[in-house]
Design goal:
- This protein is an alpha+beta fold.
- The chain is built from 1 helix and 4 strands, in the order ββββα.
- It has one helix spanning 45-63, and strands at 2-9, 12-16, 22-26, 38-40.
- Strands 3-2-1-4 form a 4-stranded antiparallel β-sheet, with no helix packed on it.
- The radius of gyration is 18 Å and the shape is elongated.
- The relative contact order is 0.19.
Length: 65
């Protein structure tokens, strides 16, 4: 999903979504953002699965072993 930095006010960045909605996010998430910048937001399915596997392994060691 592509989003556009609409404007920046203090520590809040207003992001325009593809449907035209505007949402506010903390500037700390995009510290180098400037008005008009385009960001691509994507899900890293490989990393998500890897994290789930690690959590499952930890839980199994704690509760099953």
């Amino acid at each position: 999903m592509q989003v556009i930095v609409d404007r920046i006010e203090n520590d809040i960045v207003m992001i325009e979504l593809p449907d035209g909605q505007t949402v506010n996010i903390p500037r700390v998430l995009v510290p180098d953002a400037a008005e008009g910048d385009v960001y691509v937001i994507s899900k890293d399915t490989t990393e998500t699965e890897s994290r789930r596997d690690r959590i499952t392994q930890k839980m199994n060691r704690l509760f099953i072993d």
